[in-house]
Amino acid sequence: MAAIELPEGVERILFTEEQIAARIREVAAEISERYRDEDSLKLIGVLKGSVFFLTALARELSIPVKIDFLAISTFSGGARAPGMVRIAKDLDDTIDGEDVLLVEDIVDTGFTTRYLLQTLAGRSPNSLGICTLLDRTTRRIVQVPVQYRCFEIPDRFVIGCGLDYKQLHRNLPYIAVMNPEH
Ligand code: IMP
Ligand code: MG
C-alpha cells in the first residue's frame, strides 16, 4: 500500500477512514435500535466540526431522520468565566416534542456541550441525547451525559473528519494527531 502523505505538523494517524466508517456503523446500529419506536429522530449538528460525522452517521441510520444545524462561538472571559459559549446561528425549526440527538465532533472540557444541552432542554424536546465522534474525558471540566461515542482519544490535538486547525484539515478522511507548534 502506498504511504499516505500527511500534511505538515501531522504526527500520526489515530483512526483510519476504514476504522471510522466501521465504528460509525456500529454506533448507528445502537442508535437505530434505541429510537426504532419513535416517529423520527432529529439530529442536531454543531457547525462546522460535526458536519462530516453527522452526514456519515445519518446515512447509516435505519430510522426516519431529520437534520438541523446550529453554530456557536466561544470566547474566553478570563479565569472567572472560562469556556463562554453563545449561539451564533440558531436552529431553523423548533424541537418541541421531538426526539433529539445532539451530534458533536468532540467533547473536550464539556463547556460547549453543557451549554447546548441546557439551551436545547429548555425547548421541550421529548428526549435529548448526545452523540460524539470523539471524547477526551481526561480534559473534562464539567460533566455531561454522553450516550454515544465513537472513540475515546488521548490528550493530544487532533484534526480530520470535521476537526480543524485554523479552519484547515476538516476534509481529511482520517483522524490524526497534530503538533500545533509545528
Ligand atoms: P469543549 O467546549 O472544551 O468541550 O470544546 C469543544 C470544541 O473545541 C469542539 O467542538 C472543537 O471545535 C474544539 N476542539 C477541542 N479539541 C479539539 C481538537 O483536538 N482538535 C480540533 N478542535 C478541537
Ligand atoms: Mg473548532
Describe the structure.
There is one protein chain. The protein is of the alpha/beta class. Helix content is 21%, strand content 32%. The chain has three helices and nine strands. The chain has a six-stranded mixed beta sheet with strand order 4-3-2-5-6-7, with helices on both faces. Strands 1-9-8 form a three-stranded antiparallel beta sheet. A hairpin with an 8-residue loop joins β3 (65-75) and β4 (84-89). α1 (17-34) crosses α2 (51-60). The longest helix is centred in the N-terminal third of the chain and has 18 residues, at 17-34. Bound molecules: inosinic acid and magnesium ion. Residues 49, 164 line the site of magnesium ion. Inosinic acid is lined by residues 49, 83, 105-113, 157-159, 163-164.
Q: Which terms would index this structure?
A:
single chain; 182 residues; alpha/beta; 32% strand; binds inosinic acid; binds magnesium ion
Q: Helices and strands in order, then pairings?
A:
Blueprint: E1 10-15, H1 17-34, E2 41-47, H2 51-60, E3 65-75, E4 84-89, E5 99-107, H3 111-121, E6 127-135, E7 148-152, E8 158-159, E9 175-178
Parallel strand pairs: 2-3, 2-5, 5-6, 6-7
Antiparallel strand pairs: 1-9, 3-4, 8-9
The structure holds inosinic acid and magnesium ion.
Please tally the helical runs, counting DSSP H or I stretches of 4 or more residues.
Answer: 3
Strand content: 25-35%
Order of helices and strands: EHEHEEEHEEEE
Span of the ends, CA to CA? 27 Å
Oligomer: single chain
Bound molecules: inosinic acid, magnesium ion
